[in-house]
TrEMBL record:
Record keywords, A-Z: Coiled coil
Pfam annotation, one family: GH3
One GO location term (cellular component): cytoplasm
Name of this protein: Uncharacterized protein
Coiled coil feature spans: 7-34
Keyword Ribonucleoprotein: no
GO molecular function, one term: acid-amino acid ligase activity
InterPro entries named in the record: GH3 (IPR004993)
Record-linked PANTHER family: GH3 DOMAIN-CONTAINING PROTEIN (PTHR31901), INDOLE-3-ACETIC ACID-AMIDO SYNTHETASE GH3.17-LIKE ISOFORM X3 (PTHR31901:SF57)
């Protein structure tokens, strides 16, 4: 049976992971995208093949980010572009 300290340590760890989840997720995705961009098969993340990467402008977080592009993404680009121009 776990001691009180082990239980409290476990709760503290869960709290740390929850608090930092967004940063941890971003780091893992960034590393995974880098692996795919460097030639690893894209099935480590997606069911579809990554055809190329778009690079974000980096305005929200300071650093540009890689955005994977699949065949399905390319099919949706005209639709999303039309939506953006009609809303703007």
């Amino acid at each position: 049976m776990a001691s009180r300290n082990e239980f409290e340590d476990g709760l503290k760890r869960i709290e740390e992971l929850t608090t930092n989840a967004e940063q941890i997720q971003e780091e893992i995705l960034s590393l995974t995208f880098d692996r795919i961009a460097n030639g690893e098969p894209s099935n480590i993340l997606l069911a579809e093949s990554v055809l190329e990467f778009f690079r974000s402008s980096g305005t929200s977080g300071g650093q540009p980010k890689l955005i994977p592009v699949t065949a399905e993404t390319l099919k949706l680009l005209p639709i999303s572009s039309a939506l953006l121009t009609t809303v703007g």
